[in-house]
Amino acid sequence: MEEEESSSFWAKLFKKDHEQVLEQEITEDAYEELKSLLMRAKPEINGDDLIVHLPRADIILRPGKLLIKAKTKKEAEKVLRNIHHYSQPPGLWPAYGLTYSIKKERSRIS
């Protein structure tokens, strides 16, 4: 009995937060529409993937697939519901939890 309690304690102590991923199959037309929307947010482009880094989630658009990665399912669902707000002026995006994708360049030591 003590072993079960002890292992449960250690499992909770070192528990890693796993990201929640919402995955949605999309048509080619939906892909093109989402691509034009997400390009307004200045995404990171990695091969065929467009990646928009938000404060609490990442949006990944691939041909035929839309992925939302967040810490909780609730946050991922909120981003999915609000993606269409990228069609509005950028000044309104923060109200929906959306932002520009910020690319940080690593400083080089010469």
Keywords summarizing the entry:
alpha+beta; single chain; TATA-Binding Protein; 3 helices
Can you give a write-up of this model?
By secondary structure, the protein is α+β, with helices and mostly antiparallel strands. It has a domain at 20-86: TATA-Binding Protein (2-Layer Sandwich), CATH 3.30.310. The chain is 31% helix and 24% strand. It has helices at 2-13, 28-39, 73-82; strands at residues 20-25, 44-46, 49-53, 57-62, 65-70. A five-stranded antiparallel sheet has the order 1-5-4-3-2. The longest helix has 12 residues, at 2-13. It is globular. The chain starts with a helix and ends in a 28-residue tail after the last helix.
Topology:
Elements: H1 2-13, E1 20-25, H2 28-39, E2 44-46, E3 49-53, E4 57-62, E5 65-70, H3 73-82
Antiparallel strand pairs: 1-5, 2-3, 3-4, 4-5
**Number of helix segments?**
3
Q: Order the strands across the largest sheet as they lie in space.
A: 1-5-4-3-2
Low-pLDDT parts are: none
Instruction: Assign a percent range to the helix content.
Output: 25-40%
CATH topology of the domain at 20-86: TATA-Binding Protein
Supply the CATH architecture of the domain at 20-86: 2-Layer Sandwich
In short:
The chain contains three helices and five strands.
